[in-house]
Amino acid sequence: MSKLSIAVFLAIIGVSLAAGGCRIPKISYGYCEPVMVDYMPRSYIPYGTVVKCHCEPGYEWTEKSNSYECDPYGWQPSTFGECVKLTCPYREPPENGDVTPSQKRYSVNQKIEFSCLPGYSLSGNSEDKCKSNGKWAVNKPVYCLKQCKVENLAPYVTYSPEAKYHDQGTEIYFKCDKSHYHLVGEGKSKCSKGGIWDTDFPICVRKCYTPEIENGGVEDEKDFYLAREYIEYFCNDGYVLDGEDEGQCLGNGEWSHVPTCKVTCPYREPPENGDVTPSQKRYFVNQKIEFSCLHGYSLSGNSGDKCESNGKWAVNKPVYCLKQCKVENMASYVTYSPEAKYYNQGTEIFFKCDESDYHLVGEEKSKCSKSGIWDTDFPICVRKCYTPEIEDGGVGDEKDFYLAREYIEYFCNDGYVLDGEDEGQCLGNGEWSHVPTCKAQCKRPTKPNKGSFEPYQDYYAVGANTTFKCEEDYELMGERVLTCQDGGEWDYHSPKCQRTCPYREPAENGEVTPSQKRYSVRQEIKFTCLPGYSLSGNSKDKCKSNGRWAVNKPVYCLKQCKVGNLAPYVTYSPEAKYHDQGTKIYFKCDKSHYHLVGEGKSKCSEGGSWDTDFPICVRKCYTPEIENGGVEDEKDFYLAREYIEYFCNDGYVLDGEDEGQCLGNGEWSHVPTCKEIILNDSCYGRCGKKDDYFEYTCQCHYRCEKEYNCCSDYRKQCFSNKHNLY
Description:
- Among the domains are: 83 residues, Complement Module, domain 1; 60 residues, Complement Module, domain 1; 62 residues, Complement Module, domain 1; 48 residues, Complement Module, domain 1; 58 residues, Complement Module, domain 1, CATH 2.10.70.10; 59 residues, Ribbon (Complement Module, domain 1), CATH 2.10.70; 59 residues, Ribbon (Complement Module, domain 1), CATH 2.10.70.10; 43 residues, no CATH class.
- It is 2% helix and 39% strand.
- It contains two helices and 76 strands.
- The strands form 29 sheets. A four-stranded antiparallel sheet has the order 3-5-7-8, with no helix packed on it.
């Protein structure tokens, strides 16, 4: 910016360049003054001077900072604040109330008033005033507390003091406005927090006064009674209530019922298990009563009585109800005589069955005894069972008939057997639980020589089995189980017992086919071995007629050898999956550039293992060709990991390592070349001589007989004397 531009800018913001400072700013309702000692008033402020601005009472500065500094560019910061008139902040109206007037800000000395809505009372200052410092004179919370309202009072209830609304904490008092009404409930109530009365309001209930009863009165008499209360009436001795003995106070002050008292006879006790009609506590003159008994009881004594004018009964003798007997729960088919619903004590009845196929079991008669109980249990009629007919059989201890739950025992004639249970029970319907038949039996079968059968008995029922077996070393020829058929015949002929050969144990790691516990005559067996084993001994044998084996010599399964996991390129002969013990195999490599390393043959020994480790085929390395050089101790070929030593002809030197190793792939680890010696490049005489060549400052790989050379090209120096290298 040019000097002219700066001057124009400073002039705009009120800075005088010629004066060397800033003009003092003018503030309405305020002033700015330098912050410095011994300041002399002048028309401008020097550079670097700081001023602070202040407002007159009743006004406040609008910016956060009131400090400004003068520099060559003017006041910093460049914008000045202002002095504005102080106000008081907005005042929140109380809940359920108002503030008058309601403004965002209030001027100094302005007043506000607080008020509450109808039904609420003000708690706190009712007004406040804005002070010159912009704060409220009181500035304390104001509340509108809910008032209590008296409403829905019951009829005839009044209260004091009377008001439309009552402040919290105020008490009111209740009474009835008429003397013949009584206040029921609390006599006062207090307005509590929340504008709710702390008690329910009372009611006024109409009073009932004690009624007058001639020759009687009221129990526990009081001055008055309230609605729904009861009183109990009574009559003097010799009198009885004509009407209900209780009365209830009604809401209109009247009684529900008021009886009278009349002359009576005393209460008459009904007989036990009987009734008195009518049944009352007292009876009127000339009133009659009748005695009766409950069903099942008979009356003993006068059936009625009458109330005399002197208040006494005409007869006044005891009356009884005696229990009768009733016929009930009679068993089926039982009848009795004489027939009646009830029977007086001492009466007899007689029983019988109403059908000929039934039999009376129990007493034939019964008598009604005291307490109305029959002196015997009632009988029952049981259906008769008659003897069943059984062809070729019968029943033991036969009778004309049998009763329910009785048993009979069945039997069959000789040569026959019961098909079914040997007992039968007579059922309640006249049938038997079971009636068997008699079937023809089978006679005892023929016993085989060297054998037996079970069960062993004279006769066998149809369907019965007998099981045959032979003595040890004998085999059953024929059916093992025979079954008795209808008509008394066996289903098969009796079997025979034939001698057999014993069980043959298979060789270890072998099998016997077939494998049985016993073998029949002329039956053949075959011995075999599991894979990997060879049979030693007879492969077959045969059961002879004397129960012995034709050969009967031990058989063995010898473990064979198996060729597995051969090294690559190794072959063998003769080829087979398994080789018997004692067999030899021969190894070779299947490619000419491989060499067999190891034994050339192996023999299968006892236990099925080879007597030598199998060989491997190793790739051959052939002698490399080196122009103007060769290999020491040359052979036809070399094997992996073998070393050769290279040399060069006279006048040549090796370029590379002087050794090479045969690798597994038939290649050499290193093959050098032979280069011609150039004497002008020799380092002969450069290193000098030492008495002890091991103390050379450089490490020499060779030393010459005449000279010791440590130069890098020592090979050239010593080549002509190579035969003297050591």
